[in-house]
Amino acid sequence: MTRKLTKKYLWLPLLLCLSFPLGVLAMENEDCLGCHNDRDSVGEELFIDAQIFDHTVHAALGCVACHESVTEEHPDDGLSPSKAVCLDCHSEVNDEYAGSVHAENASCGDCHNPHQVRGLADVSGHDLNQQCAACHDGAEMVQQHAVWLTQADLHLAMLPCISCHTASEENQIVLYIIQKESDAVFGDFVLSEHADLQQLAGEKAPQRLIDLNGDSFISLTELRTFHRKPANQNLRLQATLMPKEVTHRVDIRDNRYDCSFCHAAGPESMQTSVLALPTAAGSYQRFEVERGAVLDALYGTPDFYMMGTTRSASLNILGLLIIIGGTLMPLGHGALRFLTRKNRSQKGE
After folding, report:
1. Cα distance between residue 17 and residue 24, in whole Å
2. What are phi and psi of 134, to 5 degrees?
3. Residues spanned by the domain of 230
4. Residue 109: inside a domain, yes or no?
5. Which of 246, 261, 289 is the last residue before a domain boundary?
């Protein structure tokens, strides 16, 4: 009986092998990237940056998930590996995208490199706009928006295009560290890269420049310390409004013509924020920021001002005192002159 069972189960390994494509068993990501991560070996067109690819949503699936026909004999077999069609996995995205104004002008590959694709939380607003700039000229877009949008150049520089041109209704404030491009007093600020922040942080992780206690939560106290620290005089925080979720319904949204869609203090998105720091792999890591940072104009985000949103309690009090003082001074002066009118008349005033 034991021999029969043993003989019977000897077939299981063979059956398991036959149930999977041979390429899956033969080729791992490391095997593919051993060559494709070498630009000199495969050329620019077939080069894949392994460090970037390892942090994409496709890396976990594996190369053979999209290139099923590749075998361990590749490339000596002389065969071109098969390529998966995006719709094989993303049919629901296709249905949504088909209803947008972009559908007839751009395919998936025009905006997404499958070997570099990342989630929304892993990219910056600048990265997103770089995709749009491949087809849309920046100067021309500013001119078109300026017809109805005040300070169109500022809006387009500070906001991802998808904040206004997708169906996403929920947004959030994302903070980035920017730095002076030069030592000039009025020098331009640019988005800080991982290497820049790592140099400033020394042996510590870049997040410790702000997250002083390393708890992955940015408090208002830590923000104030960051802005007041002399070593950070060439650094500041820049904030932008980004969608919380990605949609592929790319078109013109009529409600974005209403300034109150963004410029209002009431929505939750205007009171909460996250800090996005660049990683060595070129993606971003997000950290929760204490509620109220966006509304703290003095110490929260000095490079962020949105009418109807940004508030400063200190400036509110100062402004109120100026108004009260400006009102009381003429009233007091008039009252004093009225009370002393007899003395002044006797003196011949």
Report:
1. 10
2. -65, -25
3. 119-289
4. no
5. 289
d(CA 347, CA 340): 11
Is the CB of residue 263 less than 8 Å from the CB of residue 308?
Answer: yes
Going from the C-alpha of 76 to that of each of 25, 48, 55, 71, 73, the distances in angstroms are 18, 19, 29, 10, 6
Q: Which residue type is seen at 338?
A: F
Q: Tokens for 144?
A: 């078109």
State the alpha helices, DSSP H only, in the chain: 2-9, 11-18, 22-26, 29-36, 39-42, 50-53, 91-97, 108-111, 125-133, 138-145, 152-158, 162-165, 194-201, 220-228, 313-339, 341-346
* Domains contained in the chain, number: 2
pTM across the whole model: 0.73
Evaluate whether residue 274 is within a structural domain: yes
**Alpha-carbon distances of 30 from 26, 113, 152, 190, rounded to whole Å:** 11, 20, 47, 35
Q: 147-180, pLDDT tens digit by residue?
A: 999 889 989 988 899 988 888 878 888 999 999 8
Measured distance CA(61)–CA(251) in Å, rounded: 31
